[in-house]
Give the backbone structure.
Amino acid sequence: MRSVYGFNDNWFYVPQETEVNSDLSTFTEVTLPHTNRLFPYHNFDDAEYQFISTYRKTFRLPEARQGRRVYLTFDGVLSACTVRINQHTFPEQRGGFVPHTYDITDYLNEEGDNHLWVWVDSRERADIPPFGYTVDFMVFGGIYRDVTLRYLEPIHIENVQIRAHGLLTDAPSVEFVVTVRNETDKPASVTIVAKMAFWTDEYSEGIVEPHSTTRLTAWSSLRDMPKSARQLWSLDNPKLYDFHVELADTATVTSAQERLYDRVTVRTGLREAGFAQDGFYLNGERVKLFGLNRHQMFPYIGAAAPRRLQRRDADILKYELGCNIVRTSHYPQSPHFLERCDEIGLLVFEEIPGWQHIGNEDWKTLSLRDVRAMIERDWNHPSIVLWGVRINESWDDHDFYTRTNALARELDPTRQTGGVRFFLGSEFLEDVYTLNDFSNDILEPEKTPHLVTEFNGHMFPTKTWDNEERRVEHALRHARIQSKQFSMGGVAGAIGWCAFDYNTHKEFGAGDRICYHGVMDIFRLPKFAAYFYESQQSPQQKVVLRPATNWALGDVKEGLIEPVTVFSNCEELVVTIGGVVQGNYKPDYARYPNLPYPPFTIDNLDVRLAHPYGDIQFVGLIGGEKVAECTIASEKLPRQLVLSLDDEAIYADGADMTRLVIRAVDTYGNTLPYALSVVYLRLEGEAELIGDNPFVLAGGQGAVYIKAKRERGKVRVEARADRLPAAYVELNII
C-alpha cells in the first residue's frame, strides 16, 4: 500500500539559473531544508536573496512501484518554482507558504536513474501573495521546508478531516470526512473504515468516478469510549489520539481476503473551542487569550529552519513567555511548529499570506488557493482555533472577503474565521472581529467577538542595548495593555507584536534592517518585556523573579535609579542593598489591577549618585517561604563568558541544528547589556558553525547555530574574548 520516504538528502545546488545539461561540478551538495544564501544576522539587503537558483537530484526509486502512483510533495519553496523530472517539465508553482504535489509516475525511469531539477525563483514578484507593494518582513528563498516521496495505490486516500461534535453533551461523536482519489479508468466502489481502540469499526460506502475525487463521511459515537479515557484536549492537558482510517474495495470488506487500498493515521485532539460575544471558550470554560505574534525567520538561515528549531519556538512561547496563543503572522507556518503547539497546548491563530496589499484577480485566485491549502493541510491541528482569511491590515474588499470566508466555512465548519484589520469600522464579514490596535490602549469594541491581534510593535521598537528606561518602558507598555484587556469582558484577548525581532525591508526596519519589535531579540534571547510575559505564569508551573534593571546609576537620568521594576509571580519581595534590608514589597495592583501577577515597583531605596552602593538582592516569597532569589552586582564588570546549548545531542543527518548561546555575565550570572565583547569561536568535530565568527555581542548576548554533518561523535566549541577566561561546551552528534 502506501509508502512514504523523506527526500531531503543528496541535493545539489547552485545559486543561479542553469541549463539542464550544466556541469554538476559547479554545484554544491546540500541537505534540505535549505536557504538559497546564508546571511549575517543583520546588515543585509532583501535584494541579496532575490534571484533564481537551481537544485538537482539524481535518484533511483527506493522500492518497486508495483502499480502504485508516485508523488513528490514540497512543503514549501520560496517563492515560486519550476520542477522537471527526466524529460517532463511541470507548470510553474507560485507561492511559497503552502505545500504542492506532483504526480511523477508517468515520467519515471523505474529501473535506473531519475534526474530531478528544481528552478527556484526567490524574487518578490508582484503576481504572488504577499507581494505587490512593500512588505514588513523578509521572505528569503530556497527549498526551505521538507520534501517527501510517496507511493500510493491508484485508488487512495487524499485527505482525512476529523470533526468532533457535541463533546460537552451526552451524545458526543466524531465525523470522519475522507477525500478519496481514483486515478484508474473505471468507477470504484469503496468503503472507508474508521477505527479507534475505544469503539468498533465504522463504515461508509461510496462510488468514486474515474480520475476524480469524492468525499465520504463516517460517524462514530464517543459514548462507547470510557469516560476515564475520554480526555479533551486543553491547555494543561493536551491529550492527542490516533485515529486510523482504511480504504477498501467494497466487494471484499466482509471477506477473509479483504483488499485494502490505503491506510492513514491521523493524530488529533478532541476539544470544543470558539469565540462568543463575551470572549473565547475552550471546552466550556472562558479563557483570556494572552499571546504574541511569530515570524518564522531565524538569524543566518532565514526561513530554512529544521524540525528541532521550529519546535523549540513553540516551547519558548509556551514555557519561557507563558503565552496561551500565538498568531502565525503573516502566512501558514511550519508543520513541525504546529505539531509542537498541539503537543504542549498552545493555541494558534493561523492566517493566509499577505501584508496590506491586495492584487488583481489572478493574485486573488492564488490567495483563495492559499485559503484552501492552509485549511486542508492544517484542519486536524487541535491547537488551531481561528482561520485568518483576510490580508493583514488591508482595506475592505467585500467581494473578495465574502469568497474567502465562504470557502473557509465550507472547508471547515468547526472553526470560526477572523480577518486582521487596522481600523475600527472595517466591514465585518468574519466570525471574530480581529483588530491590530496601535492606540497605546485598547479601543472599546464596536463589534464582538473582538480580539486584539497586534499592539505596541512599531510604536516603541526596543533593542537589548537601549538605555534602561526605554527597555523598562517597552516592557511596561505590554504590561499596561495586557492588564487593560483582562478587565474588558468584550475583548477575548490580546496578542502582542511580537515574540522575536526579525529581518525586514528598509521601509520598516532600523539602520541594520532588523525590526526591533520583539519581546525577545532575533536570537530568541530576552528583553525586559519577555520577563513580563514570563511572569504571568502560575508559580505552580514556574517561579519567576526577573528584575528589570542594570543596577547602574549612570544608566538612568540624573542617577535616579528608582523605582526599580521587578517582574515576578511571587507574593512578596524582600530587597536588600549591600546586605541592608530596604523593605518588603507587594505586587503593584494599583497600577496593574487586572494582571494575574502585577509587576513589583521598588522605591525608597537608600542609594544616591556619586555615593558608594552595594549589590542589590531580591528574595521572592510565597506563603512566607523563600522560593526564589536574584542578586545583581554593583561593579558592572564582565567576569565570565557563558556558553549554553539548547540540546545535549543532535542527529547526524546533515540538517539538524541546535542554538549555541553566548553571554557576558557579572559575578552572579546576569547578562551585561553593555558588554560589547568580540568573541572568537573555534569548533572541533563533525559539525558546522552557522553564524558570525568572530561574534560581536549585542546587548551582552547573542547566538550561533551548530549544524550536524553525517558523522557521529563529539563536538567541542571554544569561545575566547579579551580580558575574560575562555569558555567551552560539548555536543554529541548521534
Notes: Residues 192 and 247 are 5 Å apart (CA to CA).
